[in-house]
Design a protein that fits this description.
Elements (H helix, E strand, L loop, with lengths): L20 H8 L3 E5 L2 E4 L1 H20 L3 E2 L5 E3 H7 L10 E4 L5 E4 L4 H11 L8 E10 L14 E11 L2 H21 L4 E6 L8 E8 L5 E6 L5 E3 L22 E4 L6 H8 L7 E8 L2 E8 L6 H7 L5 E3 L2 H8 L15 E4 L8 E4 L5 E6 L9 E3 L17 E16 L1 H6 L2 E3 L5 E3 L1 E8 H11 L1 E2 L2 E2 L10 E5 L5 H16 L4 E3 L6 H11 L3 E5 L7 E6 L5 E5 L3 H12 L1
Parallel strand pairs: 3-7, 15-17, 17-20, 27-28, 27-29
Antiparallel strand pairs: 1-2, 4-6, 5-6, 7-8, 8-24, 9-10, 10-21, 11-12, 11-21, 13-19, 14-15, 14-16, 18-19, 21-24, 22-23, 25-26, 29-30, 30-31
């Protein structure tokens, strides 16, 4: 490809609404352009990356035994009503009526459509297992589209669905997909972690998220370097602490102290000169319509997904100020677990606490030397706080490491949630009709492109992994008006193409500095700079990632690139 023919309108400035590196750099480097909030054109450079990502995904999915299909984007409401999700999926689903006033939606996911296909065609155990996937567009009307391709309203996704005769076979395929996804992201040259995750609205028995490690990631994860345990903070388990030995012998007498206009944990800590971990924080939640109090150590936060799962609830929310007073008869900021009329559930972090500070249930007062078991009863101890770096691994006790990541893939063991609701059954060897057991496996294709940039960039632009770069090599003649430079650059360009490289030649009549900046901004892994030593047949090879430069004979450029690639393996 010749740069003079490439539609890659680069920019010096980032868009005003861009908050993260991928949004800024993909726009500046000419990969994407905004059409409207959450909607983007993907330009030729971006399309080349997407096609390379899709190629890797297709090769690995096909190798793993999955088969590709093309499913409709328009979904009739009847299928979603069968599964029970038409009215509960939420406002993210884009609904509309056709000319006959029939209800449809633009598919945000495809469990219903694929289950409908399989239930019509598969009747016997002999036709199973089956794993079908598609790569196509999805639509979700995000309440606040942001971060460019990270949270868009229209995006490209690979979604796969498997169907099985037994739970055991579904689990076999789940781990087959786990290994397949690991190969996919490894081939893309991305640093990632597969972590235990919450199943969310998709449902199912358990799931894993695949997170690309990046400081800008919305997801938080913890992992153990000793035993390999890894989980999102929505799922990560605390190691339940032991009750301190001889705890009751350490109890002190409760003391009421005046704390005028002191409400927040930080203020209480400073005013009473006690660390935040010696203060009890009490929060009132409404769980499926019923009020409960959740006690947690003052320096920790409730992870609401864990709270929802602990109660096996459909809906969990913080009570309003008015509800708090109605449920407890106490003022917000001074809530006390003592003599509370609603049940108190305590996070594991409360178990070791002795003689702690708590609200007095009265404006401008707190209590010192409060103890659970003596001054108030805990209905149950539950694991609901966010696990942090340095805390013990729940499996081996070694310190956990916390990082941020970007979710690019998610696999679920669905069970029979959709097959039972929609009548997707098969006849087994004994002639018995049974529901198929399902799995679900997704990869955000456009999100992978953005995540790769979040993980791989510097002050000069994008630094693409070789495997998914729009071009692998760019040949840069510093002066196209000089015959020896232009001629050698053209020879190298043709030779590299013959050797199987994906090559761009910057044949524009522009200043060398301008070309170098564009090459760095776009992020092509290798730059072949043809300059003053062209008459000698010598060029400069620059590695975009490391900045290393090598003087190389023009005939040996491809050989040197392969040598450098092999040294990274």
């Amino acid at each position: 490809m010749r740069f003079s023919r490439l539609f890659a309108p680069t920019k010096k400035e980032s868009p005003a609404d861009a908050e993260i590196p991928s949004h800024k750099l993909l726009t500046r480097a000419g990969f994407i352009r905004k059409v409207a909030s959450g909607l983007y054109d993907i330009l030729p450079l971006g399309t080349r990356v997407i096609l390379k990502v899709e190629k890797i995904v297709r090769e690995e999915m096909n190798s793993a035994g999955a088969q590709e299909v093309i499913l409709p984007i328009m979904h009739p409401s009847e299928l979603w009503q069968e599964s029970g999700r038409w009215d509960v999926y939420g406002k993210e689903m884009i609904k509309f009526k056709d000319r006959h006033e029939r209800d449809y939606a633009l598919g945000p996911t495809a469990e219903e459509v694929i289950t409908d296909l399989v239930r019509k065609e598969v009747k016997s155990y002999k036709d199973l297992p089956l794993n079908l996937y598609q790569i196509g567009r999805k639509f979700r009307d995000e309440i606040r589209p942001r971060f460019g391709l990270m949270r868009a309203r229209e995006f490209i996704m690979k979604d796969a669905y498997s169907f099985h005769t037994s739970d055991e076979d579904a689990e076999r395929e789940y781990w087959n997909m786990y290994e397949t996804y690991s190969r996919i992201f490894k081939r893309m040259g991305l640093e990632f972690k597969a972590v235990l995750a919450d199943t969310g609205e998709i449902g199912g028995n358990f799931s894993h998220e695949f997170l690309v490690i990046a400081d800008t990631g919305e997801s938080k994860l913890v992992y153990c370097e000793k035993c390999g345990y890894a989980a999102s903070t929505e799922k990560a388990a605390q190691r339940r602490p032991q009750v301190p030995e001889g705890r009751a012998t350490k109890f002190k007498e409760v003391e009421k102290v005046h704390t005028p206009r002191i409400r927040r944990i930080e203020e209480v800590s400073e005013f009473l000169k006690v660390p935040q971990e010696d203060i009890l924080k009490l929060l009132v939640y409404v769980v499926d319509g019923k009020p409960v109090a959740v006690a947690i150590r003052g320096d920790r936060e409730v992870e609401e997904t864990k709270l929802k799962n602990a109660f096996r609830a459909k809906e969990v929310r913080l009570a309003t100020d008015e509800e708090i007073e109605e449920f407890t008869g106490q003022p917000k900021g001074y809530l006390s677990p003592v003599n509370l009329s609603i049940p108190v559930y305590a996070d594991y972090s409360v178990i070791p606490m002795v003689n702690f500070v708590a609200g007095a249930g009265e404006e401008d007062y707190h209590l010192k030397n409060v103890n659970w078991g003596r001054d108030f009863e805990v209905k149950d101890f539950i694991d609901v706080s966010e696990v942090r770096s340095g805390e013990p691994c729940p499996e081996c006790g070694a310190p956990l490491v916390q990082k941020r990541g970007i979710e690019v893939g998610h696999i679920f063991k669905l069970g029979t949630k959709y097959s039972q609701a929609m009548g997707a059954t098969f006849v087994d060897e004994d002639g018995q009709e049974k529901p198929m057991v399902m799995g679900c496996y997704g990869i955000g294709i456009t999100r992978v492109m953005a995540a790769a940039v979040e993980q791989n960039h510097d002050e000069n632009g994008i630094v693409w992994p070789f495997e998914i770069a729009p071009f692998e090599v760019i040949v840069i003649p510093t002066n196209v008006k000089k015959d020896e430079i232009r001629s050698l650059a053209e020879d190298i360009y043709e030779n590299l193409k013959r050797e199987g490289f994906d090559v761009l030649i910057d044949d524009r009549n522009a200043r060398p500095g301008f070309k170098f900046k564009d090459a760095d901004l776009i992020g092509i892994p290798f730059q072949v700079i043809v300059g003053k030593r062209a008459p000698e047949g010598i060029v400069e090879l620059k590695v975009r990632k490391s900045g290393e430069r090598f003087e190389v004979e023009a005939s040996k450029v491809g050989e040197k690139i392969r040598e450098l690639l092999n040294s990274e393996v």
